[in-house]
Amino acid sequence: MRNAYFVLAALAVAVVTFAVARLIDNAYVFFAGYVVLQYIVLATAWNILGGFTGYVNFGTAAFFALGAYTTVVLHKTMPFLPLPAMMLVGGVVSGLIGLGMGYLTLRLRGTFFSIATLAMAVVAQTLITNWNFVGGSRGAYIIRPSDSPIFSGDYIQYLFVVMLALSVISVSLARAIQFSRLGFGFSAIRDDEGAAEASGVPTLKLKLIATALSGGLMGMAGAPLPYYVTYLDPASGFSLSYAVNTIAMPLIGGTATWLGPVIGAILLGTLQQVATVTISSALSLLLVGVLLVTFVIAAPKGIVGWFKK
Amino acid sequence: MSNVLLTVAGLGKRFGGFTALNDVDLQVAEGERLGLIGPNGSGKSTLVNCLCGTLRNDMGKVTFGGHALNGMSAHRRTRLGMARSFQLPRPFTTLTLAENIRVPILYAANVKTGGHAVDPRERCDALLDMVGLLPKADLKPADLTQIEMRKLELARAMASDPRLLIADEAMAGLSNQEVDEILALLLKLNGQGVTIIMIEHIMRAVLAFSQRLVVLVAGRKIADGMPQDVIRQPDVVAAYLGS
Amino acid sequence: MDLSFDLLGNALVSGLLLGGFYAAVTIGVSISFGMLDIVNIAHPAFIILGSYTAYIANSVFGFDPILSSIVLLPAFYLLGMAIYHVYDVSFERRGDASIRGLAFFFGVLFITEVTLVLVFGVDYRLVDAPYVGPSLHFGVIDLPLRLLVPFLVSCALIGSLQLFMSYTFLGRAVQAVAQDPMALRLMGANPSKIKRIAFGLSIASCSVAGAILIIIQPVEPSIARDYIGRIFAICVMGGLGSFGGTIIAAVILGVMESLTSTFYGPSWSPAVAFGFLLITLAVRPSGLFGRT
């Protein structure tokens, strides 16, 4: 029941958010808001594996870009598919990649998994760069429809709503996990994997669930990207800034709960949108790096930690 | 021996060129209190790790309650009813005491009974009460004293509802009075029908507790019998006092 | 057939030379990750930093890139000590090295890269030295000095580190620190101090490794990432912390990449290292020569 109430509350927040954005009635609000929402999903997804289970994924960009490129493929082969269906496929592709990666490396020490995710990002980028069907290194152009298919408004408003819905789903899922049997298992693994096994926790299975869920959500977050940017090339799709942001946001917000990544994504995402416009995009990225290092050193429990004893 | 619970046959384990366990045979009966002693490096911990599935044994067989355990993962052994406490307590540091206990209730005890046979909350309170930690249920392990940490370790092991409890040096570093407290706790558990293997250096405790004593030296079992007889055996004396 | 034999021969030789260079860029990680168990994924960023310091010394002051990188060793050593100090105080002593420590180095990697972009832009930079252009010829085999000189410098770098590790008290203490910090403490050495020195050495190696990198290829800030996979692949394959294993693994990878690049095109070569790393992790995480 608690979960149902939370989903209702999250939906209410989402509806209000959309209503306010419509009232402002400026396309930039939707373009900027989309990015912040996308980071809420990415940070929440990262935190399911990184914060709850304790395995650091440096390969966010790969899971994200694979979702985006799945859409490119579907757009060329099955253009009639609605966007949510493409997102589902993108999520499955990235989730399966996560599962495979996890199966190969999760029996090892955590640091090996982290290094392997970095490696995986470069392998995936090389494959896409050499795959001409999706544009190779030249990139792919996608024509963004002009109008929303489900309500009257610009297509960017539709993308905004879709990402808003995915945010509600991801955050509700993360919160449900946190208070569930699965969440206790994840925490046990994070704290002491050997003791977790001895307590009956099937650690490998749970780690695989976390990796697949986390990767799948990242893929879903990436799937609408081609329609948002209208031009997608490997260098921008696999940009390291996705990885840095998705690690920085949960660590700055606080990794222990579902709330931390949301706070981190809203603060850091908004800050970057503002900084990119007012200063420069390179400086805004530098800002993220500096904040990340500052927070891991000075505030190990993140912003959420300030409000608990 | 009536109602054998655990059978170890020809168990062997090597690390590179070093033989940690060599052809160890052991039987433990349902409800028994067994003491396992041996000098440092004699293979006690390796034996525990092979029994619990943390390490894979290279040779021999372990059978528990009619199940062959070879190759079985640690969590499935726990679910079958084999629990351990760690030599150095290894609590889940970011969870409260109550949550620490909850993990094995959710993942072992309730899996065995097929779901919701016990209410996790009641069971958790009962276990914490048994070791006297109920008032501290909402604290984190970092707030505990040494003996409280040991008690938490035992309570967590018991939360999986085991048939066999392996207590690996549950009393190391405790005061005399604290040793008695843990001893009383273990005897009480045994009274409730739990079979217990106690690995211990504190002889007073082992002798007070054990119905039977097994001695490991350099990876081999050199004695197995009534405690009073075993400690008089010349090779046991030699192993402990140096020949 | 003759043509492809020439190609093969040249690919093998340049792969071998490349391997020597890869060993030099990896040796620092063999110390920090292999011996100290510190996952410094920012290591390649410091190598690129080394490339840029060599670039400034060369293009602004006209110095030889290799000589200037040797002069700059103490500066990189101090930088390494400083970074270790922050890491030690913030993570190791709190017993919280895993997630936050990794994130810390990831942040440092990113800060270094973005700072280099802000200062130097994203253009490729080159150095100028007498050995950058010419080649030696042995029959059909070309030996470009641009690869041969870095190879020799790598050998010198690894050789001197090996001598230090084997024949000095400090060197042996470094090797002991990962295995048995307690024993080290009993010997009257402070593990934290030993690790700081070792980490300083690991970052110092970036000065020389960076200089030879910019001799071999033009450098821009983001190529650090291509080297993360190479470096860790070699380090893991080489059995974590073994210099001999590192050299062999580096040569294998160099040859593989060179062959891939010759016969399939250079756009595939980044995947070789990472593919190798994934396979190594999946099949034999203790490395080709490590003990299980």
Which bin fits the share of residues in helices of chain B? 25-40%
Distance between the termini of chain B: 34 Å
Q: Which segments of chain B are poorly predicted (pLDDT under 50) over 5 or more consecutive residues?
A: none
Mean pLDDT of chain B: 88
Write the layout of secondary structure elements.
The complex is a heterotrimer of chains A (309), B (243) and C (292).
Chain A: H1 2-24, H2 27-53, H3 60-77, H4 83-105, H5 110-129, E1 140-141, H6 155-178, H7 181-191, H8 193-198, H9 203-222, H10 225-229, E2 231-232, H11 234-237, H12 240-253, H13 259-278, H14 281-298, H15 302-306
Chain B: E1 4-15, E2 18-29, E3 33-37, H1 44-52, E4 59-64, E5 67-68, H2 74-80, E6 82-85, H3 97-112, H4 120-130, H5 146-158, E7 164-168, H6 176-191, E8 195-199, H7 203-209, E9 212-217, E10 220-225, H8 227-230, H9 234-241
Parallel strand pairs in B: 3-8, 3-9, 6-7, 7-8
Antiparallel strand pairs in B: 1-2, 1-4, 4-5, 9-10
Helix pairs in contact in B: 2-3, 3-4, 3-5
Chain C: H1 2-35, H2 43-59, H3 65-71, H4 73-92, H5 99-120, E1 135-138, E2 141-144, H6 145-167, H7 169-179, H8 181-186, H9 191-216, H10 224-237, H11 243-264, H12 269-283
Helix pairs in contact in C: 1-6, 1-9, 1-10, 1-11, 2-3, 2-5, 2-9, 2-10, 3-9, 4-9, 6-7, 6-9, 7-9, 10-11, 10-12, 11-12
Question: How would you describe this protein?
Answer:
The complex is a heterotrimer of chains A (309), B (243) and C (292). In chain A, 77% of the residues lie in helices and 1% in strands. Chain A is an all-alpha fold. Chain A has one domain. Chain A starts with a helix and ends with a helix. By secondary structure, chain B is an alpha/beta fold. In chain B, 37% of the residues lie in helices and 26% in strands. Chain B has a 6-stranded mixed β-sheet with strand order 6-7-8-3-9-10, with helices on both faces. In chain B, strands 2-1-4-5 form a 4-stranded antiparallel β-sheet, covered by helices on one side. In chain B, helix 2 crosses helix 3. Chain C is an all-alpha fold. Chain C is built from 12 helices and 2 strands; from the N terminus they run H-H-H-H-H-E-E-H-H-H-H-H-H-H. Chain C has helices at residues 2-35, 43-59, 65-71, 73-92, 99-120, 145-167, 169-179, 181-186, 191-216, 224-237, 243-264, 269-283; strands at residues 135-138, 141-144. Chain C starts with a helix and ends in a 9-residue tail after the last helix. Chains in contact: A-B, A-C. Chain A binds chain C through residues 50, 54, 56, 58, 104-105, 108, 110-112, 114-116, 118-120, 122-123, 125-127, 129-130, 137, 240, 243-244, 247-248, 251, 255, 282-283, 285-286, 288-290, 292-293, 296-297, 300, and chain C through 39, 41, 86, 90-91, 94, 96, 98-100, 102-104, 106-108, 110-111, 113-115, 117-118, 222, 225-226, 228-229, 232-233, 236, 267-268, 270-271, 273-275, 277-278, 281-282, 285.
